[in-house]
Amino acid sequence: MASGSPVPFKSREDHRKQAELEEARRAGLAPAEVDEDGNEINPHIPHYMSSAPWYLNAEGPSLKHQRKWKSDPDFTKSWYDRGAKTFHADKYREGACENCGAMTHDKKSCVERPRKLSAKWTGKNISPDEKIETIELDYDGKRDRWNGYDAASYGQVIQMYEARDEARNKHVKEQQLKKLEEKNVNQNNEDGINDDEDNDDSLGVDEAKADESKQMHFAKVEKRMRTTGGGSTGTVRNLRIREDTAKYLLNLDVSSAHYDPKTRSMREDPLPDLDPNEKFYTGDNFNRVSGQALEFEQLTIHAREASEKTGHDVHMQAAPSQAELLYKNFSVEKQKMKSQTKDEIMEKYGNAATDHELLPENFYLAKVRERLSTIELVEF
To answer: Biased composition, Basic and acidic residues: where in the chain (predicted)?
Structure first.
């Protein structure tokens, strides 16, 4: 119940009667309390909310202290009248802008181009006075980022882009028609056809073809897929064809290969005892050590070793093309050295796979003895 302030002294009997009256009002047995404006006060409102503070000096029961009781200034959500003019003088006035002649600003604040002969001396082309407004914005108006924006001004942007697209389509159509005309002229010269009506018909057909070729890309729709890391991408990793069996259904044994649902990966082979020719999935580890994955790993190792051991300024992530070219040259030189070493060994010791006659075993023993005879034994 709302009570006035200062609170008059009440005896115990008065407090008991007041409590009984409030209980009867909550039960609907007594009429509700009325404020100074004639509005009924809900009896179920707690006492700490209905009682007014002492500094308001409330004379009777009221809920005005729960409302917005402070007097607000004339706040508004409107914006300045952009480009509005008030008065247009015919001659220069004392105290006006020396450059343009407007009374609402001085020469230092003038935004017009400085005139060769200012309005103060010529008295001509006097600019009109601007409309000066003082606006007190409210809470929403101060935080409205689109306050004062004219939506009609965006029509100029739309017209600019439409004109650009129209000019581009016109240019593309002219180029396509030019190519088709050249093609028809060459074909007519080869066939010996010089009929004007046929040329007109072919030109009409060519225009239809040009229109079709111009619109053929409008039906192209690229699928965008949402990813877990935010944003969107055109491809999603670790997806399978819907008709194929999922990895975790290949072997339902609890002790079989572990399946990670977060990354959709199964590193081990779920069916290790099955014939390799009969299974289509052998685990993610098999894919990591085969095909282009192995080549990429070798390329990465070579780039790291080249940077650490030989001092080459190469980085796999910063300059992948340079690292790939360096690895390609290294592979060619390595293969060339292997073949050269192989040729030297075959030339020196022969090749058992060919028909060349091998040297006898005594020949090699004689060479070894000759080599040992030249070595001087040093006694320590």
So the answer is: 10-26
Cα angle 116, 122, 123 (rounded to 5 degrees) comes to 130
Residue-wise pLDDT for 39-68, tens only, equals 888 889 888 888 888 888 877 788 888 877
| Residue type, position 362, single letter | N
Determine the pLDDT at residue 84: 85
List, for residues 74-127, the tens digit of each pLDDT value: 677 678 887 788 889 989 999 899 999 999 999 999 999 999 999 999 988 899
> Which tokens in the block code for residue 314?
């190469």
What does the alpha-carbon distance between residue 256 and residue 187 come to, in Å, rounded to a whole number?
69
Q: What are phi and psi for residue 233, nearest 5 degrees?
A: -145, 165
pTM: 0.28
| Cis peptide upstream of residue 6 (ω within 30 degrees of 0) | yes
Q: SS3 letters for 213-260?
A: HHHCCCCCCCCCEECCCCCEECCCCCCCCCCCCCHHHCCCCCCCCCCE
User: 266: exposed, middle or buried (C-beta count within 10 Å: 0-12, 13-18, 19+)?
Assistant: buried
Cα 158 from Cα 20, distance rounded (Å): 73
Mean pLDDT of 246-262: 87
What is the separation, in whole angstroms, between the first and last Cα of the chain?
120
